[in-house]
Amino acid sequence: MSPLRHKLLRDIRTQRAQFTAVIVTIFLGVTMFAASYDSYQNLSTSYESTFTEFRFANLTVAGGDVTGFADTAAGRSGVESIELRTVADVPMQVGGLKLLGRVVGLPAETQPSVNQVRVASGRYLSSAQPTGVLVEEHMADHFELTPGSSFEILGPSGWQTVTTSGTASSPEYIWPARDRQELLTTPDNFGVAFVPEPLARQLAGTSTPNEAIVYFSGGADNEALANLLLTEAADSGATVSFTRDEQPSNAALSEDLKGFEELAVFFPMLFLTAAALATYVMISRLVHAQQPHIGVLLANGFTRRQVLAHYLGYGVVPGLVGALPGAVAGVLMARIITGFYTSMLSVPVTLVQFYPATLVAGVAFGLITSVLAVIAPARSASRLAPAEAMRGTVPAGGGRPSIPERIAPPLRRLPIPWRMALRGIERNPRRTVFTVLGVVLSLTLVLVSWGMLDTIVNLMDRQFVEIQQEDATVYFTGPVESGDVADLGQLPGIAEAEPVLQAPVVLTSGERYETALVVYETDTTMHRFFGEDGERSLPTEGILVGQAVGGLLDIAEGDVVALTAAGATIEVPIAGFVNEPLGTMAYVSRSYLEQATGFDLPATSALIRYTEGSDLASVRAALVERESVAAFEDANALYDTVQRYMILFYVFVGVMLVFGGAMAFALIFSAMSVNIAERTREVATLLAVGTERRQISRMITAENMMVALVGIPLGLGAGYLAAKQAMASFNSDLFAFDLYIRPSTLVISGLAILVVALLSQWPGLRAIGRLEIAKIVKERSL
Amino acid sequence: MAVSLTNVWKTYGEGPTAVHALAGIDADIPSGDFTVILGPSGSGKTTLLNLIGGIDDVTSGDLVVEDEKLTGLGTDERTAFRRNQVGFVFQFFNLIPTLTATENVELVANLTMHDGSERAIEVLKQVGLGDRLDHFPAMLSGGEQQRVAIARALAKSPPVLLCDEPTGELDFETGRLILGLLRRLNREQGQTVLLVTHNAAIGEMADRVVRLRSGEIVEDRRIADPIEAGELIW
Question: Is residue B213 one of the residues assigned to a domain?
């Protein structure tokens, strides 16, 4: 090994703490990149393979003349298969629990040509067993339904017992969403059973299929064909039609994938930038301190290129040492994450692959970052004039009062240690800037993670506490007179019951938007409506729609849209827009809609409010045992379910906070170690003249904390903007993720960074105690 | 007696690699003396100065400075000793670049008094820097920087002033000026001055010259008729 390489390795060993900090930061950045990017790739591939293997529909059309639509579509070039089937939302009873489930018709004996299922246990449907059904895995797991167990489904002729032939997963229900407007469900209120088509029709009370599913040639995307068929579907009176991308489960999974994609770019970028800053600060100081050595090398005939290469080595080593294990760890982590994810979601096909490109890219990112960081100091080392370098230089910095002192001259009367701290900040402006940037990056990382958490918690509270006011929803087995709902209010434990009608509708104004229309009492107390200008009441005329619809249909308040439901269309004015975090529904008052349609409208469900102190179990039992009640849904159940899912989120945010803390520590530790190293002679001199160590520590701490304090407001601002950007990327017509960060989050984050800064200077301050005063005061200043 | 050394040893390392920087030094330095310690590199002169200044600890023997026994003192006691009893002047000045001349001196003056600003100005004027009070080190010449360093050493009015190669970084003329200043302050204020140098000519201006070689005193003589610093030639 060449002597220069020995020097390189020994220098690194001497400054092992600082190099370790940089290496750990690179390791974390590369690990996050490889783990999230490979998870993203694995999940994408798993979904894609599932879609191909199980022939996931490119287009789904429901309502209207689906048979006619299918006949036309079959003749279109690019259409490989079309299936007609019956899908119906029907009450189910498993054990003592009633839920509003869904039956999906499948051909017996053979899999359909579109939207096939994977039989996980038991066997596929058989014509020999007309009431044998396949239970979708989420429902089967929740209710512990296994082959041979039975449950009941309500049809027009009453409750019918069906037997579980097997359990199955399907590309349509990887994420068990009821529809696009209701992506969040709980197993207690939604479950899917795949049943023989004749049974599906019988349970739905229909003699013809009500849904067509279309598979394009090879399952490939074909936008032009999809648009053509969507137009034809609309012409055939379809009430629901969506492409593969819009399919509820797939739309939800896409949001999730987007999260991984974002993780794969945003967070690693933060870490690698932090590592680059720390490396730059450290190597700049090293080059400065080694000027005489560099002078000697150059004077003895080393070429500038050799010197450049030598100092670039200080980037190559930590880059490789951090990035190589980081990339390997990330790739391994991705396998675990993918497996965990796909098993949790019951993805039919899990593909965990090794992507050499991720490994190479991870190592390359780490290495390039680290090398880029040392280019400037390495170049300055190679350009030194030997004689000058060997002579050493005048102590750096100083020479004038600090900016605050120049702006506010009374500051010049501050105690000298404070003046030293103020001027110290400007002494090495570049390092100060980098330290501030480090604080900014750390806070950005923390706030993006924590901001997501705050936003989700706030979003849930807004939806389930502020907007939805009911304690429970009761679903009826069929439409009931709204007056009958009032009877429920007489039951013990129920203070109030309001009828609600919910139906799928299509809003058209040039473009069309499929959603659900919810009909409330005009003076409803079960739902609050919030628009741009605050809370408002349900209008006596016209409909309220979610804000996203305004943009999608390009409509404004007062515009008239066509509202189509059950084959009938009426013109309704837009009375206003509501801003709701989940879903984009349309709301109308019962009195207005009855007047507009000329019909007395029934209720499909009732919203219930309990009396104070009522026994919820008995209320539930009393409601469920009524013939007309198909299902009961406690409003808190969904909220609680989401809260349970949030545990994963808390873990994620916790990990990010630890990572953010580690990154902040690494960065601030590097900067502060250099800061203290640069002061060694001053500190030794002060010690020699009798200054107490405590006093010196206080002076250095004051300066370092001032730098951190400069960075904190900037970091809070940058973090807020980054978090806003991150949340906005998840926005769609189905979700409105308006960033919300609690003030306490900002305060705690800022304080946490200060604590990290305080801790990170601890090793440097301890080193003061080990200074060899006698030796240092004799040395030439560098 | 300002300084009293009895069989003082300073050893670095242990066993066969041990180096005796000082090997059984015995010396008494009376108060008010201007003593020059001479010797080649590695003779132990700086080590001796560091021991007297309390920034290093003796390996064995007794060392008493201004009636304070330094042997076995703890870190805090040693810091207090340095604060009250000695002032240092270093070869490389060791000024804090972000502080003005006055602030550099005041910082040290504040160690022993509530508000050292007046004292700082007073000593800076004594060393002839009354017109450089608000200058930062980078704006001062080498000689001026060393004068600030001397003012800093004087600010606490220590009874003992320890100067380690104070002219090492200065040109001949400036060096003589600094030595003259140190001698004047010694005469006017009665401070004990110990000046370490390898420049034998400087011994001519001292009251006493102690010559070291390999950690031992090889010569200790009083100068009967010291010359003025301005007459020194080297």
Answer: no
**Distance of residue A391 Cα from the nearest chain B Cα, in angstroms:** 12
CA distance A42 to A358: 12
Contacts A413 to B, Cβ<8 Å: none
Kindly state whether residue B22 falls inside one of the protein's structural domains: no
CA distance A547 to A585: 9
Residue A391 pLDDT: 64
Question: Looking at residue B199, what is its pLDDT?
Answer: 93
Identity of the residue in A399, A420, A684 whose CB atom sits nearest the CB atom of B136: A399
| Cβ-based contacts of B87 with chain A (< 8 Å) | 689
Cα A447 versus chain centre, distance: 14
A775 CB near a chain B CB, below 8 Å?
A: no
B82 and chain A in contact, CB less than 8 A: yes
Q: pLDDT tens-digit profile of A324-357?
A: 999 999 999 999 988 888 887 778 888 898 999 9
CA distance A401 to B61: 48
Q: What is the pLDDT of residue A395?
A: 47
Q: Is residue B179 part of a domain?
A: yes
Question: pLDDT by residue (tens digit) across B181-233?
Answer: 999 999 998 999 999 999 999 999 999 999 999 999 999 999 999 999 989 99
Tally of domains within chain B: 1
Which ipTM value was assigned to this complex?
Answer: 0.79
Cα–Cα distance between A54 and A113 in angstroms, integer? 9
The CATH number given to whatever domain includes residue B131 is 3.40.50.300
Contacts of A689 in chain B (CB under 8 A): 82-83, 87-88, 108, 111, 152-153, 156
**Average pLDDT taken over every residue of chain A:** 88
Q: Which residue of A has its CA nearest to B98?
A: A398
* DSSP character at residue B199: -
3-state secondary structure of A83: strand
Backbone angles phi, psi at A299, to 5 degrees: -65, -30
Chain B contact for A176 (CB, 8 A cutoff):
no
- pLDDT of the residue at A667: 79
Does the CB of B106 have a partner CB in chain A at under 8 Å? yes
Asked if A690's CB is within 8 angstroms of B83's CB, the reply is yes
pLDDT at A148 over 90: yes
Render pLDDT for A239-259 as a digit per residue (tens, 0 to 9).
889 999 989 999 888 877 877
- Residues 389-428 of chain A whose Cβ lies under 8 A from any Cβ of chain B: 394-400, 416-417, 419-420, 423-424, 427
- Please judge whether A689 and B138 are an interchain contact, meaning their C-beta atoms are less than 8 angstroms apart: no
Q: Which residue has the higher pLDDT, B219 or A627?
A: B219
- Contacts with B52 from chain A: Cβ below 8 Å: none
Taking the CA of residue B228 and the nearest CA in chain A, the distance in Å comes to: 27
B97 touches chain A (CB under 8 A): yes
Could you tell me the two tokens for A693? 């160590």
Structure tokens at A671: 């900067």
Whats the size of chain A, residue-wise? 782
- Residue B69 resides in a domain: no
Q: What is the pLDDT of residue A394?
A: 44
Strand partners, A60: A213, A242
Is there a contact between A774 and B50 if contact means CB atoms under 8 Å apart? yes
Within an 8 Å CB–CB cutoff, is residue B99 touching chain A?
yes
Q: A16 CB near a chain B CB, below 8 Å?
A: no
B10 against A566, higher pLDDT: B10
> What is the pLDDT averaged over residues A81-86?
96
Q: Where are the domains of chain A?
A: 1-56+247-393, 87-207, 468-641
pLDDT value at A682 more than 90: no
Residue-number span of the structural domain to which B197 is assigned: 31-57+74-208+218-231
What residues 282-301 of chain A have any CB closer than 8 A to a CB of chain B?
A: none
The per-residue b/e assignment along B73-84, b for 16 or more CB within 10 angstroms, e otherwise, is beeeebbbbbbb
pLDDT score at A396: 47
Single-letter amino acid, residue A521: E
DSSP code for A724: H
